[in-house]
Amino acid sequence: MSDREYRTVKASQTVLKELMVPSYANFGGKVHGGVILSLMDKIAYTCAASHVKGYCVTASVDSVNFLNPVEVGELLTLSASVNYVGNSSLEIGIKVISEDFRLGIVKHTNTSYFTMVAMDEDSRKPVPVPGLILEDEREIKRFIEGKIRKQLKSEHRAEMKKIRSNLDLIKEINALDGENCRLYKS
Prior knowledge:
The protein is an alpha+beta fold. The protein has helices at 33-52, 137-165, 169-174; strands at 6-8, 14-19, 56-61, 75-85, 89-100, 105-118, 131-133. Strand 5 (89-100) and strand 6 (105-118) form a beta hairpin.
């Protein structure tokens, strides 16, 4: 029998709301993607640290697709939840919604998965995380999907390492014909 501690998903679920102000705007008048990414990182940390009851760092971020622009004056709501836990890592699922409350328009702007690692503050080495109590079918599904994402990322890293070590540069340079690049010749 393990003496590992377990916590519910609900115990660390986190919501962050922030008004998008003019200083967040880019030259096109939309909110900078970097501002949104920063808020996503903040909520991922808060959710992970709440589950771990300790210090965590961001290890990786799955793709972040900006589905809809965020306008100055909209209210951004970020929701975070622990989807999956490994030995020292946690996958935090984040959903971002923007709301123009004057017009009553609600838009899904992003969904992303952050991998956080629990760290000992003194040694800066990874430490075990509490397990996850899965209370319903949705939480079970998210846990399984997180496990699959972790496995696929590991397989992708291994495949890219293999490709880099076996790269035939001359063959690949010749295959650049038709690509939107030009080789510099001195």
